[in-house]
Amino acid sequence: MMQVLSTLLTLEKRGKQPVYLQIANQLMALIRNGTLQTGYRLLSTRQLAELLKVHRRTVVQAYDELLAQGWLESHTGNGTFVAKHLPEIQQVKPESAIEKTISPIEKAGFTFKELPHLDRAVLKNSTRLHLDDGFPDPRLAPLEDLSRAYRTQLLGGNPYMRLGYGDTKGSHWLRQELSAYLNETRGLKTLPENILIVRGVIMGLYLVSTGLLEVGDNVVVDAPGWFGATMNFVQAGANILRIPVDEHGIDVGALEALCQKQKIRLVYVTSHHHYPTTVALRADRRINLLKLAEKYEFILFEDDYDCDFHYLSKPYMPLAGADPAGMVMYCGSFTKTISPAFRVGYLVGPADVITYLAKLRRIIDRQGDQILENAIAELLHTGVIQRHLRKSVRIYKQRRDLFCDLLKEQLGKYIQFEIPDGGMAVWTHFDPNINLSKLAERALQKDLYMASGSIVKPVFPNEMTGLDNSIRLGFASSNAQELEESVEIIKDLLENL
What is the CATH class of 126-135+387-495? Predict the structure, then answer.
């Protein structure tokens, strides 16, 4: 056995892990795989130390560790043994070990079903240039103000309260500031009790889908639409029904016809700037949509992901501000305001629903980042975010105008588009003969990220989408020079396809 142990125990004396733990872990592994059976008498500490050429105290530490964990037992004057209470393990044959080529850290030993609606690429842009899905420019974000506010919240006040558990609804201060801000800028009529702080719109969707939908419920989404919303509804077991979007937004007449045929539980809508097409829901359709929600008693989930960025005139007020019957769940975030890295959003609705969803939130995310939430509350209170938004709107409008001019001048024979009234992206229709996937792949080789259309593809095959070889090209995150260079790259690629 001494010869066997000399080959089975290998030590890295200059490794990061202490030598005694290396010995303990390797002996533990030999017991687990049946090489050392229950009741086996181990070498004395002196013998094993001589064998491994280490100090005896190192082996004593290793044995003590295994004794404390219950792998070994010691009999005074008789030696140290593999614990008898351990189950007997059939030793793994060498040939079986060779056949087992897949490591347990790579593949589970149990079976599980991979759901197809979850199989979506995660956006992790790392290129120098980007015409993304419509993201803000983090270079404009008020990071110094946020840093100071965060530091103040981190170091000031009662540390037990500041750094301990808080309300599952989120920071009360942020909910107060948000209530005032949303009432002033969105025309809402809220109190802090109407607001649940979430980590973004996607979390708000998950809570509503999990807490308010049952398996088999009918949920209406738009076509084309955002796969992130559809994924949540499918995950909740809902039946997905699609209705088309035209130049005036979601077809409310088609929705009413659907309501007359079957019970609808929830309707998802991006009323301000429809995703992905950027069109605004016309005023008459807004009125009729609210009437339908009240008449047919369905939840209206309003995703207002970029309300602050409107360039033509004052933006439309959200549906939630004109909701007379408490049918609207309104959701937004600071993702577009500051940067996607700061995961703070808000779900607004009737107080009883918010209280219920806060209980549900507790079992997946006890609470949010209260330090960050209070820091953002401070920026709202001092007007930093409001000033940042006024500055950003001016800059993004300039970038939109430049980008649309570039698209028209450089790519006019390949694409069609309408200048968006707001938002951070242009919904662009490419010539049907252009392979967008190949174009995006070649652009990536030029250090330019652009959408391939996959982000708005249907969750399931054969779904109505209205995509028509169209993609979103985001302009807000790039400055003038970057926009010019990006369009030039696309032009060169299209001319050499």
Answer: alpha beta
In a 10 Å sphere around its CB, with 0-12 CB exposed, 13-18 middle and 19+ buried, how is residue 383 labelled?
exposed
Q: What is the pLDDT of residues 5-19, one digit of tens each?
A: 667 888 888 888 899
Q: What share of the chain is helix, strand, coil (3-state, %, to 5)?
A: 45, 15, 40
Q: Of 455, 459, 456, which is closest to residue 233 (Cα–Cα)? A: 459
CATH class of 2-99: mainly alpha
What one-character DSSP code corresponds to residue 256? Answer: H
Q: What does the block give as tokens for 60?
A: 């004593």
pTM value > 0.70: yes
> Angle at the Cα of 376 (from 332 to 477), degrees rounded to 5?
60
Q: Is 76 exposed, middle or buried (0-12, 13-18, 19+ CB in 10 A)?
A: exposed
Classify the C-alpha dihedral 364-367-372-378 as positive or negative. Answer: positive
Distance separating alpha carbons of residues 270 and 108, to the nearest angstrom? 40
Please tell me the distance from the alpha carbon of residue 17 to that of residue 127, in angstroms, as a whole number.
38
Neighbours of 167 (CB within 10 A): 15
| Residue 15 identity | G
| Cα(480)–Cα(400) distance, integer angstroms | 10
In the 3-class helix/strand/coil scheme, how is 372-411 assigned residue by residue? HHHHHHHHHHHCHHHHHHHHHHHHHHHHHHHHHHHHHHHH
pLDDT tens across 24-55, in order?
999 998 888 888 888 888 888 998 888 888 99
Q: In which element (H, E) is residue 444 found?
A: helix 436-445
Long-range contacts of 187-190 (CB under 8 A, 24+ apart): 187/317, 187/318, 187/321, 187/322, 188/318, 188/320, 188/321, 188/330, 188/348, 189/321, 190/348
* Both structure tokens of 343: 């995961």
Token pair for residue 337? 């305001």
Task: Please choose, from the candidates 295, 304, 301, the residue with its C-alpha nearest in 3D space to the C-alpha of residue 275.
Answer: 304
pLDDT, tens digit, for every residue of 259-307? Answer: 999 999 999 999 888 889 888 888 899 999 999 999 999 999 999 887 7
Q: Which ranges in 215-282 belong to alpha helices (H)?
A: 227-235, 252-261
- Parse the chain into domains and list their residue ranges: 2-99, 126-135+387-495, 142-384
Q: Residues 6 or more apart from 16 whose CB is under 8 A from it? A: none
Q: CB–CB of 472/277 below 8 Å?
A: no
Second-level CATH architecture of 142-384 = 3-Layer(aba) Sandwich (3.40)
Distances (CA, A) of 29 to 41, 152, 294, 449: 16, 49, 65, 47
Residue with tokens 């500051």: 338
